[in-house]
Model the fold of this input.
Amino acid sequence: MPVDPPIVDSVVGPYRQVLVDLQGATTTGLELAEMTWAVAEMERLASMLEDPAAYYAAIANLGLSQRFNDAYSRMLASWPTDAQYVYELPEVRPPSDEELLGVQLTAHMALLEQIRDTPAEAELGQPFRDAVDLARSGASYPVFMRCLIERGHDLLLERQVATRANIAAALSAAEVDGEPARAAHQRELLRAFDELVASSPWPAPDPFAFELRRARIDAAHEPTVAARAALVARWHAVLTLVVDWLEAHCAFAPTDPRFANDDPEVTQRNLDRARECHPGFVAVRERLLSETWGLEFDGIFQHETFAEEQRAGRVPYGDELIALAREARPYCVPGGSPPPDLVERAAALHAVAVA
Done:
């Protein structure tokens, strides 16, 4: 019993269709003969075999599909190029100066409409009205673009120029966050912006001049901003280590999220690590703090950054717990442990906090 016809059609059908398509072409030769033989051999095997798997294997072993494809590829490679199959690309015509000027005029008018009756209109409205007037004045496109570039209007259109509102918002955010170094940076940028606007013929600074001023101001302030951030991060870490060490000795510690785990053994390891390793970590970090900033543990709480961070709500400990940490610091040494009264007072503070 031969292989089922649907299976044979699924295998041989595509090859048969290629032969049918080639009947109308003036194609002869060895390639067509080999393709016809490969299809006939596939059909002969289908009539001899019953198992589809054996049929697929026979076609693969004899390489019939590969021989058909190879012959077909050679045939295509030998065909001369037919003019009717050559796709002619449409003529590409660059836009004229008048069309480009129209695009610019449309863009500026759209932007004017977008900022109408918004805070941005006071700052950006006049520069774009000037651009619209220039486009309508009969100036050529090259002259129009030269004027825009000289005035910085092209960058304004692309929103690549800082606006006063953005700088003022950054200054306000720095003041609200209680970061005086960052606030001083933004304050000087705002002052430079206003100075350049005052000397500009339109209500916006020259973009190139402002970016030069910004680069100088950034270079002057960024080291101070980075140094403050580094200092705060380091004394935060020292204070956190001392607090965690003290509270790791309290009765509530095994259930505290800092140490607790579903596995009691892991919880105990976390507690042992805090009790035994934190004093060493504190010693190393405090030494680095002293070498870099000349700041000891007690000096942290007199430093201006501590008061600033506390006012901004970024110190996660209350005054009572900070006082306990300062009392506990002399005992937070390798092999040391806090006095029982400190542990009891820390536990009492925690109970009040979670109540």
User: Anything to note?
Assistant: Residues 284 and 302 are 21 Å apart (CA to CA).
